[in-house]
Amino acid sequence: MRIITVVTILSLLSAGCSTEKGKRDLVPLINPPFITSNYPGTPFLFYIPTEGARPVKWSAIGLPSGLSLDVSTGIIQGSVVEKGDYPVTLTAENDYGKTSSNLIIKIGDLLALTPPMGWNSWNTFDVNISDSLIRQIADSMESSGMKDVGYQYINIDDLWQLPYRDQNGKIQINTAKFPHGIKAVADYVHSKGLKLGIYSDAANLTCGGVAGSYGYEEQDAMDFASWGIDLLKYDYCNAPPSRDTAIIRYKRMAEALRKTGRSIVFSICEWGEGGIPPHGQAGGRKPYEWASSVGGNYWRTTLDIRNSWLLDVYNAGSNSIMQILDMNAPLADYAGPGHWNDPDMLVVGIDTSKTTVVNRAGVKGCTMEEYRSHMSLWCLMAAPLLAGNDIRNMNLDVREILINSELIAINQDPLGKQAKRIRDDGDAEVFAKPLSDGSWAVGLLNRNDSENKNIGIEWQELGISGEMHVRDLWKHETLGRFSDNFVGHVEPHQCVVVRIFKK
Ligand code: GLA
Fold it and tell me: Looking at ligand 1, which atom is closest to the CA of residue 157?
């Protein structure tokens, strides 16, 4: 099975990342994000996500002073001192054609202007992380095509550290796992135009019982920066339950990160409110109300996700995909460029035979249709897209879900609106996300376990009128022109996603 997968992927790659969509996929296509940001005077790194046959030659017109493009790798690097919005025209050319698109490079005080995309080690690898795993993941990010549709961050989660600091109070890397240190891994990841994230906790110990950063915020932030870290996920295990304490501790780390001279995205992993309080602590701290003002770029809104559509048995400290949807959907107004609700990482394609936390007792895994719906809903909700499966060995169905660039484009839309659940008719739900070009992305979700449903959207519900084009973002097909409404045929646990546009 594994050999077949590798061979199939290799043959796809030799055809220039072409999939079943055929030869037109050989022509270069530049994918979002079309806006990216950095703090002034800090190292800037951006790979222009581009699908199509290799080799590609890139060019960029209008790069601000301090940045340069490597025309054969598509990586822009450097540092920009002056704040400002810099519009850049990008071009990608190969033997089959040429394409251009616009990118805005914003040098200012806000990172993560679109939801961060990447991969995180926790959901599949748990404690089993290492230098070689992270390098292999970086390689797979390229060979799978994920890098070319915008996945960028590779995040090392808990248990890269030792439980104790050294005699100078310095946090210690577990050298059995990372024998060359973290910087060597960061250098490797950066050489591919990708970014490296790391994990710590606002207490003495992390959830996994190794050293956290409480009381050492500035020292650890400086260490992370010196290693070349680009993102910090900051957990709240073993910390006092009070909301005021959480606010103080997160603010302290945000300020420490800001002083480092690197642009480090800050991920607040404080689980949010509701359900069973995790790790024996009180919930209800509502991070969505304060996380942005203390410097968080995204914040968890729920307990830990499980590899399950629904959970039918008690599963401590966890939520299913549907529970998470119900907790995250009402929070749409809190999301926007630089500050996103985080309904936790993707479980698409996680192998249920592995004994990891997401696969605890009672967890069944999901059908491919359920994984498609999970991806659809996370894209509609402008959630960070952090895959957690073993991307070194994924099958084509899983890969097709993760690299659906039409769906990713709605997630990465620069307007930065989270879809609202505009209708809830029992098992039939409708989600609508306005997009920067005046079009709408609409999700039609059937939560019924066995019955098909026809779920409709009326133009007046979106405040639009007249004839509209409707494009199905899973079929990759424009379905035609419709006046007044569109009705989708939706199977059990399916989420049809359409883009509705005037033309
Ligand atoms: C918490 C977080 C998870 C993961 C683990 C690591 O449970 O919510 O996402 O980081 O800790 O121990």
Answer: 10
Instruction: State whether CATH 2.60.40.10 applies to domain 6-107.
Output: yes
Nearest to 156, CA basis, from 181, 119, 184: 119
Looking at residue 17, its pLDDT comes to: 38
The tokens describing 124, both together, are 């599949």
Share in percent of the chain as helix, strand, coil (round to 5): 25, 30, 45
Q: What is the pLDDT of residue 18?
A: 37
Cα separation, 222 vs 188, in Å, equals 20
User: Residues of CATH 2.60.40.10 domain(s) within the chain?
Assistant: 6-107
Write the CA distances from 328 to 210, 273, 306, 362, 372, integer angstroms: 30, 10, 15, 23, 18
Q: Which CATH architecture has domain 420-501?
A: Sandwich (2.60)
207 lines ligand 1 (CB under 6 A): yes
Distance 344 CA to ligand 1 centre (A): 10
pTM: 0.94
Local structure of residue 296 (DSSP, 8 states)? -
pLDDT value for 26: 96
Pocket perturbation via mutation, ligand 1, pick of 120, 158, 160 by most ligand atoms within 8 A of CB: 158
Known catalytic residue at 390: no
pLDDT value of position 24? 67
pLDDT of residue 22: 52
CATH 3.20.20.70 fits 117-411, yes or no: yes
Which parts of the chain register pLDDT below 70?
1-24, 273-283, 312-314, 361-362
Among residues 304, 342, 390, 413, the one annotated as catalytic is 304
Intervals of CATH 2.60.40.1180 along the chain: 420-501
Q: Which residue among 157, 161, 350 is best mutated to probe the pocket of ligand 1, counting the most ligand atoms within 8 A of its Cβ?
A: 157
Cα–ligand 1 centroid distance for 144 (angstroms): 26
CATH 3.20.20.70 boundaries in the chain:
117-411
DSSP, collapsed to helix, strand or coil, labels residue 99 as: strand
> Residue 235: CB within 6 Å of ligand 1?
yes
Active site residue 25: no
